[in-house]
Amino acid sequence: VDPRDMPDADVLFGYSDQVEEHPTWGLPVVWVQGYGMYPSHQEDASFRFPCPKVCVARWLTDIGRGLGVPADQLVHIPNAIHHDGYRLERTIDDRPPTILFCHNDHPQKGAALALEALAEIHDRHPEVPILAFGSKPPPKPLPAWIELHVDPDPAVLVGELYNRATVFLWTSRVEGFGLPALEAMACGAALVTTDNGGSQDYAFHDETALVSPPAAAGPLVEHTLRLLDDDPTRVRLATAGLAHARTFTWERAGAQLETFLERYLAEPTAYGRPA
Fold it and tell me: Which residues contact 93 (CB under 8 A, 6 or more apart)?
């Protein structure tokens, strides 16, 4: 970076050795949004920079501690969603059985696992519609019994997909946080998810969701069939999930970030920075 391009600031989100040479750039902060998606040496290095790490999910602070990061350099500020957009438009108990999942061909997102589980579910309940959405078309066509929506308009995503779904299936091996799962919960879908890291902030087994180990199709099938066949359980989980999802607000996250930054500016040494 050319130092002449950098304005004076109180805080700089990012880190390089140049930060130490140019204190007017501001106190550095690293924003950690995931782990396990890129080469480990790159991700581990970001945790070891000599500055606070703001983690969007609690499991990421656990990763930092496991890498030897001092506790005073790990700050948990959970992600959030816009509840005026992701909202309940159709009552939870007035929905015919419908399954929705998010398709992403990144290996860690579990698309093959979702299709394996859904094939068995479809065999058991061929009358249940199965919907999918994603930002781009899959590399191979999906089965004809899946209704695919590519890059849907937000109004379609909320009104015709999330609010139509009774079950949202989330199959990632790893998620930094997992916003689509929380969006679906905020729209009244019951969540069936893998224990993928980020889900631990909002998916509590048999309380707000049904949770299974990563990379295992069997439990995903079992949990989805349970919600298709046991509507009172589906309504209970979806209702509790909706209430919990509503606590993830940008107002709360913004207040936590503001409090952290004020403390950091007042006492950088408390977060591992030199005096």
Answer: 231, 235
Beta bridge partners of 54: 31, 75
Residues 6 or more apart from 143 whose CB is under 8 A from it? 115, 119, 122
Cα 111–chain centre separation = 16
Backbone angles phi, psi at 101, to 5 degrees: -145, 160
pLDDT digits (tens, 9 = 90+) for 12-41: 999 999 999 999 999 999 999 999 998 999
Share of the chain above pLDDT 70, in %: 100
Q: How far apart are CA 194 and CA 237, in angstroms?
A: 16
What's the CA gap between 190 and 167, in Å, rounded?
A: 5
> What does the pLDDT look like over 88-144, one tens digit per residue?
999 999 999 999 999 999 999 999 999 999 999 999 999 999 999 999 999 999 999
Centroid of chain to Cα 157: 17
H helix or E strand, kind and range, residue 117? helix 111-124
- Predicted TM-score (pTM) of the model is 0.95
Q: Which of 37, 58, 78, 44 minimizes the C-alpha distance to 175?
A: 37
Q: Work out the pLDDT band at 274, boundaries 50, 70, 90.
A: confident
CB atoms closer than 10 angstroms to residue 231: 13
Q: Which amino acid is at 172?
A: S
| Residue 88 C-alpha from the chain's centroid | 19
CB-based burial, 51-82: b 16+ in 10 Å, e otherwise: bbbbbbbebbbbbbeeeebeeebbbbbbbbbe
